[in-house]
Amino acid sequence: MKQLLLVFIGGGFGSVLRYLIGKYLNNPESGIPYGTFAANILGSLLIGLILGLAAKNDTLTQNQTLLLATGFCGGFTTFSTFAYENHVLLKSGDFTSFAIYTIASFVIGFLAVFFGMYLVKA
Fold this sequence. Notes:
Blueprint: H1 2-25, H2 34-55, H3 62-76, H4 79-91, H5 95-121
């Protein structure tokens, strides 16, 4: 039960922060939803740092990892919004923004996870 509560609390904080970032950075007129992009890339970096710390000499406990990685990062990042925003870009015929947003999200997201884990090792 304690573990579920930790994930719930972390997820709540992550979701609220993602909402605020999206509210201030997403602009339908600009094409690319920068708020969602920023949340997903920052969340990828954070999960790399968190899981890197967790793996490094057991720096984080299992409960801390659940709170931060599963809870916070899980609530902060969003694949469903990313998928919906890509649907909107395709439906509107904005293929350039679709391609940039999709490719950049995957490539930079993966690199952010690896970079976060690299930072912990250094």
